[in-house]
C-alpha cells in the first residue's frame, strides 16, 4: 500500500520546483522594473536579445570556444582528480604526499589562479583550460579518496584471491563502489567548471562566452548580458539532465537491483 508514495513525492517536488521557477521570474521582473533597462533587462527583453544573439554571426564561434574549454577543463580536471584519488586511496603514503597540494588548491582563491595563469600562459585557451583543470581536480580527488576509504576490505581481499587484473578491479570493484560519490562530484565539478571558465574568459580571454559578457557589460547592453547568462544556465541544465543523471542511473543500477 505504500508503493505510490515515491511517485507522489516526485510529483509534489516538480510542482514546487515550477512554483520556485515562477517566483524567480516574478522577482526578476520586479527587480528589472525597479532598476531600469540600463542595469537589468526584463525576462521578455532577455528572450528577445537571446533570439538576436542566436542569429548573430559570431555566436557559434564564441559559444564553441567556451564549450571546448569547458569540456577540456572539466575532463582533464575530473580525470586527474579521479586517477590521483584512486591511487591515493590505495596508498596512504601517496595520500600524505598529495595532501599539501590538495589543501593549497582548495584554499587559494580562483582569482589568484587566474592572475598567475595569465602571467604564465598569456591570453587564450591554454590559460582558461589550465585554470579550470586546477579548480575541478581537488573536488574529484577528495570524493574519490573518501569513497576508497569506505570500500569494504573484504571485497579487496576477494579481488586479490581471485587475482583480478587492475582494469578488472577498476571496472568491477572501484567504479561501482564509487559511482554515487563520483557522479555527485562530477555534477559539482561541471557547474564549477562552467563558472571558472566564464570568469577566466571575462578576465583574460579574447573569445568565448565570458569575452562576450565582458563586451556586453562595457557597452551597457543588459539584454545581451542576461541572454548569455541564461544560455549558461541552460547549458548546466542540459548537462545535468541529459548526461549526468543518465550516467548516474547507469552506474548505480546494481545498487537498485540489490535493494529490489
What distance lies between the first and last C-alpha atoms, to the nearest angstrom?
A: 16 Å
The parts where pLDDT drops under 50 for at least 5 residues are none
The count of helical stretches stands at 11
Report the CATH superfamily. MetI-like
Structural class: mainly alpha
Number of strands: 0
**What is the CATH architecture term?**
Orthogonal Bundle
Rounded Rg: 22 Å
Tally of discrete structural domains: 1
CATH topology name, in short, is: MetI-like fold
Mean pLDDT figure: 82
CATH hierarchy class name: Mainly Alpha
User: How many strands, what sense, and barrel or not for the largest sheet?
Assistant: none
Strand content: under 5%
Q: Encode the helix/strand succession as letters.
A: HHHHHHHHHHH
From the spread of the alpha carbons, the general shape counts as globular
Helix amount = over 70%
Main location: membrane
Protein name: ABC transporter permease
GO cellular component, one term: plasma membrane
Subcellular location: Cell membrane
Amino acid at each position: 500500500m505504500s508503493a505510490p508514495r515515491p511517485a507522489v513525492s516526485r510529483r509534489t517536488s516538480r510542482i514546487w520546483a515550477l512554483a520556485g521557477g515562477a517566483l524567480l521570474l516574478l522577482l526578476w521582473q520586479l527587480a528589472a522594473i525597479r532598476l531600469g533597462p540600463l542595469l537589468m533587462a526584463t525576462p521578455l527583453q532577455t528572450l528577445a536579445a537571446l533570439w538576436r544573439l542566436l542569429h548573430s554571426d559570431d555566436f557559434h564561434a564564441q559559444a564553441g570556444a567556451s564549450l571546448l574549454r569547458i569540456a577540456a577543463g572539466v575532463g582533464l580536471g575530473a580525470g586527474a582528480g579521479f586517477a590521483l584519488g584512486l591511487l591515493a586511496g590505495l596508498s596512504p603514503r601517496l595520500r600524505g604526499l598529495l595532501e599539501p597540494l590538495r589543501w593549497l588548491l582548495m584554499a587559494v582563491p580562483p582569482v589568484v589562479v587566474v592572475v598567475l595563469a595569465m602571467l604564465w600562459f598569456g591570453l587564450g585557451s591554454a590559460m582558461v583550460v589550465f585554470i579550470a583543470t586546477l579548480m575541478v581536480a581537488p573536488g574529484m580527488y577528495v570524493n574519490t579518496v573518501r569513497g576508497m576509504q569506505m570500500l569494504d576490505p573484504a571485497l579487496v581481499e576477494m579481488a586479490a584471491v581471485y587475482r583480478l587484473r587492475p582494469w578488472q578491479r577498476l571496472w568491477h570493484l572501484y567504479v561501482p563502489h564509487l559511482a554515487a560519490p563520483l557522479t555527485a562530484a562530477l555534477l559539482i565539478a561541471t557547474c564549477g567548471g562552467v563558472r571558472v571558465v566564464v570568469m577566466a574568459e571575462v578576465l583574460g580571454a579574447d573569445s568565448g562566452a565570458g569575452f562576450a559578457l565582458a563586451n556586453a557589460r562595457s557597452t551597457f547592453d543588459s539584454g545581451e548580458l542576461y541572454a548569455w547568462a541564461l544560455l549558461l544556465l541552460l547549458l548546466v541544465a542540459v548537462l545535468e539532465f541529459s548526461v549526468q543523471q543518465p550516467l548516474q542511473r547507469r552506474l548505480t543500477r546494481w545498487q537498485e537491483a540489490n535493494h529490489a
